[in-house]
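quick one before i forget lol
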Amino acid sequence: EGDQVDILELMDIRGGKIMHHRIYWGWFGTQMLIRSAAR
């Protein structure tokens, strides 16, 4: 029970190495980050 954060994490892997790493936050997760940074 409780709130869940919507996150999508993507990695482009070539030759066993991470070439690109991206994290996408949904609306709820973004609001949590904003509140946390404001403290």
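fyi The chain is about 30% helix and 45% strand.
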